[in-house]
């Protein structure tokens, strides 16, 4: 599979862009454990052109990231074009347009998945961005606005006509948010449409190697994108690659091994922030996800989430390792909801 002139090999695995998740330390962990393509957190076009420093910091890229995309969102064509030009100055490998975020705060501004209500505007905006920058441009979207408006085949054709180098599709409508199941068969309708020749990347509900394989079989996509399934389990990419190569599942990690990963992730988070507390706060949405399905774990989860110093976090991790160290963590039966 290629994006522009970037050869990503056969069946690349993408880390999905996620707000307050795909920052430096988490991207590093996922890259270390097999992710092929990175995305930044999505960036507001309006904030970017207003030179908001917090927004600009999201576009800071590192050598380990590559190949990497900066994802931008907005509803105004002029602002999006200017934001794409500014993003290009950070020298990503490609620029991605967010047409899929279902979050209310994004949709009420007319951006993200809201754009699925005006596919002609999506096409016009995308064509303008493609024309304005030299880098490849891709897009990420959903099946449609709601059950009665699954227009993804039309959208894919419009995106292709606008000049995108690849299209990522989450197998739900905006109205579904993250409920129900992702419809990989419909993603397959796009991939198998005779008029579509750009690479199609599938996304939705991949929580392990077997799900990755079944999703691929239903859709025939060129690449797989993993989002929530990687939170607390950044090595999922290696697990999927091993399964695809050998047909065998790797054994679930021991809690003692997971604790080691958490310590590494925590150190990277603290290192990337101005102070230790800020790094700890970044980790809070990850802590419990690293230790799902462990019996009688509620007290330890609360302690981790309330810890405000590195010493407190390390003490909690020490206790978890002492009590559960030889237990294997079952990630396959964890809900992504």
Low-confidence residue ranges: none
Tally of DSSP helical segments: 14
CA-to-CA gap between the ends? 30 Å
User: Any guess at the CATH architecture of the largest domain?
Assistant: Alpha-Beta Barrel
Percent in helix: 40-55%
| Shape descriptor | globular
Beta-strand content: 5-15%
The tally of structural domains comes to 2
Give your account of this protein's structure.
The chain is an alpha/beta fold and 337 residues long. The chain folds into two domains: 2-246, TIM Barrel (Alpha-Beta Barrel); 255-324. The protein contains 14 helices and eleven strands. The strands form two sheets. Strands 3, 4, 5, 6, 7, 8, 9, 10 and 11 form a nine-stranded parallel beta sheet that branches. Helix 4 packs parallel to helix 6 and helix 9 crosses helix 10. The two termini are 30 Å apart. The model has no long low-confidence stretch (mean pLDDT 95).
Keywords:
337 residues; globular; 9-stranded parallel beta sheet; TIM Barrel; two-stranded antiparallel ribbon
Give a topology summary.
Blueprint (H helix, E strand, L loop, with lengths): L1 E2 L2 E2 L5 E3 L8 H9 L5 E2 L3 E2 H5 L3 H5 L10 E6 L3 H13 L4 E6 L4 H4 L11 H14 L4 E6 L9 H11 L4 E4 L13 H8 L8 E4 L5 H11 L3 E4 L9 H11 L8 H17 L4 H15 L7 H9 L3 H15 L13
Parallel strand pairs: 3-11, 4-6, 5-6, 6-7, 7-8, 8-9, 9-10, 10-11
Antiparallel strand pairs: 1-2
Helix pairs in contact: 1-11, 4-6, 6-7, 8-9, 9-10, 11-12, 11-14
């Amino acid at each position: 599979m290629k994006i522009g002139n970037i050869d990503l090999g056969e069946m690349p695995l993408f880390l999905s862009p996620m707000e307050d998740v795909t920052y430096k330390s988490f991207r590093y962990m996922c890259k270390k454990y097999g992710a092929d393509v990175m995305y930044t957190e999505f960036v507001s076009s309006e904030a970017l052109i207003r030179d908001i420093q917090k927004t600009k910091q999201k576009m800071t890229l590192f050598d380990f990231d590559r190949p990497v995309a900066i994802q931008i969102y907005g509803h105004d064509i002029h602002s999006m074009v200017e934001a794409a030009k500014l993003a290009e100055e950070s020298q990503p490998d490609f620029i991605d347009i967010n047409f899929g975020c279902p979050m209310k705060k994004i949709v009420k501004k007319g951006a993200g998945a809201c754009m699925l209500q005006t596919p002609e505007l999506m096409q016009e905006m995308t064509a303008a961005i493609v024309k304005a920058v030299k880098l490849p441009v891709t897009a990420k979207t959903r099946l449609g606005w709601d059950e009665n408006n699954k227009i993804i085949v039309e959208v894919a054709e419009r995106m292709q006509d606008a000049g995108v180098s690849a299209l990522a599709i989450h197998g739900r409508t905006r109205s579904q948010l993250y409920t129900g199941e992702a419809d990989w068969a419909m993603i397959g309708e796009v991939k198998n449409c005779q008029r579509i020749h750009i690479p199609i990347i599938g996304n939705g509900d991949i929580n392990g190697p077997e799900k990755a394989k079944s999703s691929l079989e239903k859709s025939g996509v060129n690449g797989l994108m993993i989002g929530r399934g990687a939170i607390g389990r950044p090595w999922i990419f290696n697990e999927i690659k091993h399964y695809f190569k050998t047909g065998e599942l790797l054994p679930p990690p021991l809690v003692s091994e997971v604790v080691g990963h958490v310590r590494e992730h925590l150190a990277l988070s603290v290192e990337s922030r101005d102070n230790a507390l800020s790094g700890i706060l970044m980790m809070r949405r990850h802590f419990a996800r690293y230790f799902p399905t462990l019996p009688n774990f509620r007290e330890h989860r609360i302690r981790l989430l309330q810890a405000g110093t590195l010493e407190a976090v390390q003490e909690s991790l020490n206790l978890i390792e002492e009590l559960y160290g030889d237990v294997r963590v079952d990630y396959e039966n964890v809900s992504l909801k």
